Amino acid sequence: MSRDQSPDRAKREANKVFKPVETQKPVNDYARDQHSFNENRERLKAERLAREAKPESGSE
């Protein structure tokens, strides 16, 4: 029986450690717009940094 119980226990322990993250939904249109704006800004910033980090291949 201990063999059957150990996977269950391990699963319970893993569920305690890796709880799903609950995100809050924006309350109103303004908050939703701000959230979208911030996500888009962060995405664009990451893309720009990635482009700048690439070595330029002297195409002159």
From TrEMBL:
Domain of life: Bacteria
Disordered: annotated span: 1-60
Basic and acidic residues: compositionally biased ranges: 1-16, 30-60
Protein's name in the database: Uncharacterized protein
